[in-house]
Amino acid sequence: MATVSKFKTPGHGEDRNPGMPFSLDAVEDIHVNLSAVERRASTLGGRRTVKKEYQAAWLLKAISCIDLTTLSGDDTAGRVKRLCAKARQPVRPDILEALGMSERGLTTGAVCVYHTMVETAVEALAGSGIPVAAVSTGFPAGLTPLDLRLREIEASVAAGATEIDIVITRGHVLTGNWKALYDEVKAFREACGDAHMKAILGTGDLVTLRNVAKASIIAMMAGADFIKTSTGKESVNATLPVSLVMIRAIRDYQDRTGCKIGYKPAGGISTAKDVLNYQIMMKEELGLDWLQPDLFRIGASSLLGDIERQLEHYVTGRYSADFRHPMA
Ligand SMILES: O=C[C@H](O)COP(=O)(O)O
């Protein structure tokens, strides 16, 4: 069985993206061939499959990349504590033992919460090495005053979040105001300090894949450590075609600067089959480095339950009822 390596805790990497000066030239020539993107995305699941022990190994790796998320209006400290317990022990001990994984210290990549839950999560995760990510900047719409959005980042960092998921102003993209988008993301990155910044583009609001590609490049140019598809609150969240466009933008940025930017699809990824498609895409388009939690995260609130069920099926030959995997 392939191994799951313990992730490097992000937030203090010496290889962080320093960004680059704003340049309109970098986005003006971007074009996206919609049918080619859709064709490529649609073949991913069918062309390659991973089975049996390889599938179990890929799913264990996927767990280490999950940003285990709760972002609900009815979140409570109790729910966040239960989520953190699940992040520490994402798979039942008997399943892990059968997989020979008991001693490997498998955890999720992070726990992702609203600002008011950061302290609770930090306390509940103490000593585990699991980072707390805070959604910020007026999540999910990102339309609160700029100074409040900056202060919100600073408050989450002060409360112990080492990863900040910011949301961009989608209006800047829709009106082609690339300089305003650059300035905003750069200001967010400065406010993050040492905390790693994931830039949520809200791709479901951006109308065209060309806009998605341009917004991806601007966010990276302004210093994003990760680019992330969605808040989970748009009517369309992560999709494979959108991901392909963002991943290719990451490749372009790496060609241009040598910097490796992380990728986080988020929203609506709830089955083991979904996540395997994303992993195959990452491996084929960007290579093995992007299967590790320092460059790949999956934002999900309910994916872990299905992965655990599939692992149990692999170990026992039987599927258990959903209620046996109640959290995440
Ligand atoms: O960033 C994470 C998303 O908000 C989670 O979305 P989900 O509830 O559809 O898994």
From TrEMBL:
<comment type="pathway">
    <text>Carbohydrate degradation; 2-deoxy-D-ribose 1-phosphate degradation; D-glyceraldehyde 3-phosphate and acetaldehyde from 2-deoxy-alpha-D-ribose 1-phosphate: step 2/2.</text>
</comment>
<comment type="similarity">
    <text>Belongs to the DeoC/FbaB aldolase family. DeoC type 2 subfamily.</text>
</comment>
<dbReference type="InterPro" id="IPR013785">
    <property type="entry name" value="Aldolase_TIM"/>
</dbReference>
<dbReference type="Pfam" id="PF01791">
    <property type="entry name" value="DeoC"/>
</dbReference>
<keyword id="KW-0456">Lyase</keyword>
<feature type="region of interest" description="Disordered">
    <location>
        <begin position="1"/>
        <end position="22"/>
    </location>
</feature>
<protein>
    <recommendedName>
        <fullName>Deoxyribose-phosphate aldolase</fullName>
        <ecNumber>4.1.2.4</ecNumber>
    </recommendedName>
</protein>
<dbReference type="InterPro" id="IPR002915">
    <property type="entry name" value="DeoC/FbaB/LacD_aldolase"/>
</dbReference>
<dbReference type="InterPro" id="IPR011343">
    <property type="entry name" value="DeoC"/>
</dbReference>
<keyword id="KW-0704">Schiff base</keyword>
